Amino acid sequence: MNTLIFRTAAPFLSALMMLFSIFVLLRGHNAPGGGFIGGLIAASAIAIFGIASGVSAVRRAIHFHPMSIAGAGLLLSALSGFISIFAHVPFMTAHWIYPVIFGVEVPISTVTTFDIGVYLVVFGSISSIFLALEEKDHV
Amino acid sequence: MTASETALILLALCLPFLGAVFSPILYRIFKSNAPWLLALIPLFSLIQFVRLVPRVAEGAVLTGGYDWVPSLGLRFSFLLDGLSLTFAILITGIGTMIILYSGGYMKGHAQQARFVSFMFLFMGSMLGVVISDGLLMLFVFWELTSITSFLLIGFDNEKEASRRAAIQALVVTGGGGLLLLAGVLLIQHITGASSLSALFETGNVLRDSPLYLAAFILVLGGAFTKSAQFPFHFWLPNAMEAPTPVSAYLHSATMVKAGVYLLMRLNPVMGDTALWTIVLPVFGAATLIVGTLLAIRQTDLKLMLAYTTVSSLGLMVMMTGMDIPHAAEGAVLYLIAHSLFKGGLFMVAGLIDHETGTRDLTKLGGLAKAMPITFAAGLAGAISMGGLPPFVGFLAKEGIYEALAAGSFYATIFLVIAILGNALMFAVGFGVGLKPFIGAKTETPKHAHEGPALMWLGPIVLGAAAFLAAFFAHFFNSHFSGPMASAVAGEEVEIHLSLIPHIGVPLALSVLTVIIALVVYWRLAEARAAMAGMFARLGPGPDAWFDSFMRGIVRLSFRVTQTVQPGRLEFYITATFCIIAAVLLVSLVSFGELPQWPGLPDGFLLGHWAIIGLAVVGLLAVINAHNRLTAIVTLGIQGFSVAVLFLLLGAPDLSFTQFMVETLSVVILTLVMTRLNLSPSDHRALGQKVFDGSVAVLCGLGFALLLMRVTQVPFNDSLTAFFNSYSKVIAHGHNVVNVIIVDFRGTDTLGEIAVVMITGLAILALIRVRTGRAKASPVANEEKA
User: Fold this and answer.
1) Contact B757 A128 (CB under 8 A)
2) What is the 3-state secondary structure (H, E, C) of B233-253?
3) Dihedral over alpha carbons B264, B270, B274, B276 (to 10 degrees)
4) What 3-state DSSP class applies to B665?
5) Which of residues 62-101 of A touch B (CB under 8 A)?
6) pLDDT 10s digits, B475-485
7) Residue B743 and residue A111: Cβ atoms within 8 Å?
8) Taking CB atoms and an 8 Å cutoff, what residues of chain A touch B746?
9) If we measure between CA atoms, which residue out of B464, B474, B466, B462 comes closest to residue B500?
């Protein structure tokens, strides 16, 4: 599997997939996509990068421990649910704001942050399993 | 009740729990003076309850509380009538004394703050039991008392005997608690009442129900284990391993009376049936006799008291069950008297132990001069326990005799048993409260002198209370025992007993009791030897049976584990899939729910067939693969084909996910496979192949049939319509699937991602465990390097 072509192309491919996963995540609300799928794509990107360049390179690249990323995601999702407390409505009720950034109206909501949390959990959990398995390959 | 009164009562209930939190802090700041401060906590609760006495004495039943889980009919609510209020006063009143006493008894102990914390926890739980209105709330507090009792019995957890006694008490009373839970739920089911106050409105519904027998047995299971009725009495004497304050408070004055409380509580709605009036008195009388005979045998002060506690509880259960006038009066008077004298005597026994270093009766004597205050307290306790004036024990015994003597022949049998039991208890009571103090002075491990005020205050106050209750009998009867008996009997009861002797049958019986008692007391050593001989001939009792029972359970679970969990992955997977196949196919066939042969969906093209063909080819490739890795990778062919089908048939989200899942599962499976030390190819015997293949085919068939059947059930599209029309309007999203996941059912998703993360952590831990083992053998690592 470790051909020169694959090893050379893998980092670029991974970076593209990462970008694509974020695109999929953000468009999810109105078109096919969303946090789950985005997270899976990102995890695949990590898998490709890991197979090509080794686990230590991946760990350096993502900087945080993947489980910390998953934990942060879970926290973010849970907190998104709690925002509604301040408006005296039930847990997890969505809230939207429409700030205008550079003249473009960008809808931001607790739903978006919740979905980002989902993305991080899926990405973090699967990557950490993958990395742990892959790492042992080289012990 | 006004809102503030409700809040005050619930505060009185919560205070002991706060005490549990604050006692370690207060002990750190005030050291050995902390008990004086901590005792203010139960004292405050006590005052709250005492303030309610006049209103309850007039017949008021105070209820109040807050909704807890309204959809289940659960309320956090209290019910205060004569019964619960008297109990609450006993718990907080004796609790105040016990906190002081613990301060003296445990002084210098490294864990004394923790001990007092546990005592507070127990106090709160017990208070909860007696003032709960909700049936389930009662159960929760009931189990809390079992747990705190476990913690306290096992307080000296470095002693084998303590640990065994703690586990035994937990198994017996906790097991009984589970029976009670079933009983409570059954009562709720029969009557529809989720609280005691509602239950009392139902009249004869419970008694007339065909399920009465079941409810009766379950409730008795709870009450008899908690109140140490024969044959469950054995845990109580073993619980004497606990420090003496625990024995005085939990295992004589309060917790063991929870069972009696429950029976008294339910007497108005469950009592007076043939079953009730036979089973309760018979078991109570048996407990009374067994307890006293076992008590005579002992030489350890605490064990003597423990066994008489068993017999006293028997006497209370017996009186609660009797269907004769005034039985309830005898029962409640005895209950109050018992709490006062037994709590006091236990504290006296603890004082003697604390100051002399022994509690073996044969080694004690002539302590009166060295410990005059303790002697006074012990004597007061013994007199009350013996049923002599001028203490409340006298009223109790008169009440019992008066009720039983006026009854039928059936009652007379129990009268004889009561006289015998009382006489023996009298002898044992004086054995503890008098014998160590008189006679020749003996040498004890420690030089005897009076204990600290913290310790003698409790027994003196309880003795004084027992005296005052009898001296002001009219006030006591109209404010405490009378309302309590009314609550037990379920009708207005007035008690007229007083200290003034009136010539009659009860008095004559009292004299008879005293004569028998004096004979036994005189020949206590001989009686002890005779009993020891008798029980030796009887062989092992319930205590030994308990050990065999526990050993049996351990052996059984070991066998079951060995059979069901052999540790072979093959076995687990085969069992799982066999059951899946059986569940799917058997239920589909037996309910006649097999699907019809489906038609093709609209717009099904040749291209779709080609993809299905591809999936089949992938399948064949997997089966024919000689190499495990090849098999895993080719498994992907089939998965991707299905994903393409999803895409073509209009489910892009699903297809998208399927693609990613296929990719990642191939990658991860490959990694796992390379880690396992398996041979690259798969060798199975032909028979094994056929068997595995059939299981696989049956599973697949089951799922296929189920899915087909599901699509053929008339489709209710109200949810689809709802989501389609509101997805954009309410949730600002066009992608209905995503909107459902992150908005409409967001809380579900939160749970799911938590599961994803926990699973990830678990897998990570498993991998780490294996890596850790590999690292633990450095030789292997060096060889690899």
Assistant:
1) no
2) CCHHHHHHHCCHHHHHHHHHH
3) -40
4) helix
5) 67, 70-71, 73-74, 77-78, 81, 91-92, 94, 96
6) 888 888 888 98
7) yes
8) 81, 92, 94, 111, 114
9) B474
Token representation of residue B226: 């908690």
In this structure, how many other beta carbons lie within 10 angstroms of the beta carbon of residue B54?
10
Alpha-helical runs (H) found in B227-326? 235-238, 244-248, 258-270, 274-297, 301-321
Task: Give the position of tokens 């065909």.
Answer: B210
Rounded Cα distance, A23 and A89, in Å: 31
Cβ neighbours around B729 below 10 Å, total: 7
Q: B760 touching A, CB under 8 A?
A: yes
Mean pLDDT of B727-753: 85
- Measured CA distances, B386 to B37, B220, B264, B312, B644 (Å): 35, 29, 24, 12, 90
Angstrom distance (rounded) from CA B113 to CA B117? 6
Contact residues, chain B, for A77 at CB < 8 Å? 749-750, 753
Are B34 and B103 a contacting pair, CB within 8 Å?
yes
Whether B643 and A37 have beta carbons less than 8 Å apart is answered as no
Asked if B663 has any chain A CB less than 8 Å from its own CB, the reply is yes
- What are the tens digits of pLDDT across the range B744-753? 888 899 999 9
Q: How far is CA B160 from CA B166, B167, B307, B424, in A?
A: 10, 11, 22, 32
The pair of three-digit structure tokens given for residue B641, joined into one six-digit string? 């084909």
Query: How much is the pTM?
Result: 0.73
Contacts 24+ apart (CB under 8 A), B682-689: B682/B628, B682/B631
- Residues of B in Cβ contact (< 8 Å) with A71: 757
| H/E run at residue B76 | strand B74-80
A38 has a chain B CB within 8 A of its CB: no
Tokens of residue B757, six digits: 């993360």
| Alpha-carbon span B545 to B168, nearest angstrom | 12
Nearest CA to CA, how far is A89 from chain B (Å)? 14
The torsion defined by the Cα of B734, B740, B741 and B742, in degrees rounded to 10, comes to: 70
| Beta carbons within 10 angstroms of residue A34's beta carbon | 27
Q: How many residues does chain A have?
A: 139
Residue type, B365: G
* Torsion sign over Cα B419, B422, B423, B424: positive
Chain B residues closer than 8 Å to A41 by CB = 660
pLDDT of residue B785: 36
Average pLDDT, chain B: 87
Structure confidence at residue B284 as a pLDDT band (50, 70, 90): very high
The runs of H, that is alpha helices, within B565-685 are 569-590, 606-624, 628-648, 652-675
Residue B42 tokens, joined: 């139960």
Q: What is the pLDDT of residues B348-372, one digit of tens each?
A: 999 988 888 888 888 888 888 888 8
Q: Within 13 Å and on the Cβ side, how many CA atoms surround B266?
A: 29
Q: Count interface pairs A-B at CB distance under 8 A.
A: 146
Pairing type for strands A104-105 and A100-101 reads: antiparallel
